[in-house]
Specification:
By secondary structure, this protein is α/β, with parallel strands linked by helices. It has eight helices and eight strands, in the order βαβαβαβαβαββαβαα. A six-stranded parallel beta sheet has the order 3-2-1-4-5-6, sandwiched between helices. It has a two-stranded parallel ribbon with strand order 7-8. The radius of gyration is 16 Å and the shape is globular. Bound molecules: NADP nicotinamide-adenine-dinucleotide phosphate.
Length: about 220
């Protein structure tokens, strides 16, 4: 299992997952292309994680985490290209959230129902091995959430079995039960879980919840 992680994105998700990977013994470089964001990261990153550019983080990572604003995901992945991402597991945390404000708590996506952002990313860099994960829970519960109802479910998908095995190992360490929804087209339904997840937040300021599949034994 690869132990070097490159995190692309300096927001709440990039910071949270960086600190989570450090906690679980990984070496991490977190990336931002903005000098002010890199400076701000110094106070927010715990332990031995290092700070660099998007390219430096991607180059370092044997596994790469994509955690940029949804509208920036495709250009970011295109800029990194096969040069930085070829053969790597890329954990795609992004959601295709449009800039429009929520309507009665319901946010808008810039993708249509029969496509997903991750399919666009996979098409942009076919040599990378994208796996959707961590997009259907808030950053406050991304690392060992320890909820009273037990381990939450994390829905994943992607075309590469070995890449999904990498992500399943990470999700087990981070305190989730993996629900593997199959190939990349499942991102068309995993990404919109974010819309549902956000509604209690916008309507009632309730952001501390997670999805769980319940099964009859
Ligand atoms: N917040 C959550 O709880 C949560 C949960 C699940 C999934 N997500 C998804 O995870 C992703 C990251 O979310 P976030 O809340 O951490 O922060 P965010 O504000 O959505 O993204 C921050 C990152 O995006 C980069 N960025 C913004 N505009 C850009 C542009 N035009 N070109 C290049 N990079 C740009 C920022 O660059 P700089 O480093 O240069 O500032 C920063 O690294 C999003 O896709 C979001 O939908 C968020």
């Amino acid at each position: 299992m690869a132990k070097k992680i490159g995190v692309i994105g300096s927001g709440s998700v990039g910071q949270t997952l960086t600190n989570g990977f450090v906690k679980h013994g990984y070496e991490v470089v977190i990336g931002s292309n903005n000098p002010a964001s890199r400076e701000a990261l110094k106070a927010k990153i715990k332990g031995p994680a290092r700070i660099g550019s998007f390219e430096e983080a991607a180059k370092f990572g044997e596994i790469v985490v994509l955690a940029v604003k949804g509208l920036a995901a495709e250009p970011t992945v295109k800029a990194l290209g096969a040069a930085q991402l070829k053969g790597k597991t890329v954990i795609d945390v992004t959601n295709p959230i449009a800039d429009a404000p929520p309507v009665h708590g319901v946010i808008s996506f810039f993708t249509k129902a029969d496509e997903s952002l991750m399919e666009r990313l996979q098409r942009a860099v076919p040599e990378a091995r994208f796996v959707k994960a961590f997009n259907s829970v808030g950053n406050g519960l991304m690392v060992n959430p320890e909820l009273p109802g037990g381990k939450p479910s994390m829905f994943i998908c992607g075309n590469d079995k070995d890449a999904k095995d990498d992500v399943k190992t990470i999700l087990a360490q981070f305190g989730f039960e993996t629900e593997d929804m199959g190939d990349i087209e499942a991102a068309r339904v995993i990404e919109p879980l974010c819309i549902l997840w956000c509604i209690p937040g916008f309507l009632s300021n309730d952001w501390m919840h997670a999805f769980k599949i319940l099964r009859k034994a």
